[in-house]
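ok so I'm stuck.
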Amino acid sequence: MEVRFLGHACFELREGDTRVLIDPFLTGNPKAAVSADEVEPTHIFLTHGHADHWGDVEQIAKRTGAQCVAIVELAQELQAKGVANVADPNLGGTVEFDGGWVRLVPAWHTSTTPGGTVNTPAGLVVNLGGKTVYHTGDTALFSDMQLVSRRDPIDLLLVCIGGHYTMDRHDAAVACELVGAKQVVPCHYGTFPPIETDAAAFKADVEARTSSQVTVLEPGQSLTL
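replied:
not stuck anymore, here's the structure
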């Protein structure tokens, strides 16, 4: 599976003909590696509804026909906006798709969509091509993150490190200890001044304290699992 970082918290997972787009904040994202018109996902997964995660989901979904998977309140807003191919799990729910599955897990954060829909944030556990990726979404550090990897060993952890709106790099390093992923990629930092941080220091800290390998990706760069 190829994992491409598109900036902020947006990632594309590719395996065969399946292309999963997570949190498609591209328009208005100063770190975006591509435009909303350049992506061709088969699936779009949302962690929560804040504008820097909701992003271009409506436009991309209508243009491509991609299946959108989001917690029920987000799914209902998408359906009300005319997005036809929507799945609406709640926390703990799993949606199967061709080649894999996605499960919503807890995240400690807040969320209201640009349209005013209040919703509960989630993390995403995605299995594709036999590999399992855990995107934390926006979250504070909490001990139950370790439960995710008790059920499914995590090949790749996509973890927010920017602080201010989410956990900072120090708490994120503890999260890496709890999850025990084989590989880690940091995200949700450096996009705006409040979330500037030292990704190299995060990498050094995690690799000194765990067996995880940390890869710091620039927007547009990819990692192969």
